[in-house]
UniProtKB/TrEMBL annotation:
Organism domain of life: Bacteria
Protein name: Phage tail protein
Any single Pfam family the record assigns to this protein: Sipho_tail
Domain Siphovirus-type tail component RIFT-related: start-end pairs: 50-128
Length: 234
């Protein structure tokens, strides 16, 4: 049975409840910042002035069929379910069985609704989620059964460097991504005319971001270097 996995439990496997019609996977909106020139018909878009385009959070709506032996048991089941969903302490991973290979970061923030008959009812819950769904496996993985030929890219993310080396990393997602870099020795990486000194071991810099699309890197050093990142899609 299709359902959701959230806060360590699955809606059907752990609670025996099914999804009712009415599921909605909201699409985030762009945060646009326009400035209109006085006495002119022109306006300028400053939405990407400090980096990439930002987006609003997205709303995920799920409705669950709540049914049990009696009204008392049904009410108990409803209480159990809503406490499971509400008690997340911030955004947690939400897996939707119909969207394999990805998860949302979500939290129930708004009021939930329960429409009941005598011994059954429908519980509707709204999650507020991070704008993008996140791939469960990192870029460059070789798990054949998890490869989506429409959305994934076959690419190496680990390289042996012996002197100046040019490589390309593909960010097939929508937003900028900051990878975790692991190097066996100190190296110098140049990207878009900016030089980054990469130390030995694991490092991450908010200034080193992979733009959506192709990213050309010029690496100088000796040893191995790898880039760990996960694609994010709307």
């Amino acid at each position: 049975m299709f359902g959701i996995n959230f806060n360590g439990k699955h809606s059907y496997n752990n609670f025996g409840i099914t999804l009712a019609p009415g599921k909605t996977i909201g699409i985030p909106s762009k945060n646009k910042i326009f400035v209109t020139v006085p006495f002119s018909n022109q306006k300028y878009d400053f939405s990407e002035l400090y980096g990439d385009q930002t987006y609003t959070e997205r709303t995920l709506t799920y409705s669950f069929n709540i049914k049990d032996q009696s009204k008392k048991h049904m009410t108990t089941k409803k209480t159990e379910i809503i406490n499971w969903l509400m008690n997340s302490n911030g955004k947690q991973k939400l897996y939707d069985d119909t969207i394999p290979g990805y998860y949302f970061l979500a939290e129930v923030e708004d009021e939930s609704a329960f429409n009941e008959n005598w011994e059954d009812g429908i519980l509707t819950v709204n999650f507020e989620a991070y704008p993008f769904m996140i791939a469960e496996y990192p870029e460059g993985h070789d798990i054949w059964n998890e490869i989506n030929f429409d959305l994934d890219a076959f690419q190496p993310v680990e390289f042996e460097v012996n002197g100046p080396t040019d490589v390309t990393l593909l960010n097939v997602g929508t937003p900028d991504i900051t990878p975790i870099i692991t190097a066996s020795d100190d190296m110098v990486v140049e990207m878009n005319g900016v030089i980054f000194n990469v130390p030995t071991g694991e490092s991450k810099s908010k200034d080193f971001v992979l733009k959506s699309g192709e990213n050309s890197l010029h690496i100088d050093g000796n040893g191995s270097i790898s880039f760990l990142f996960y694609k994010e899609l709307i």
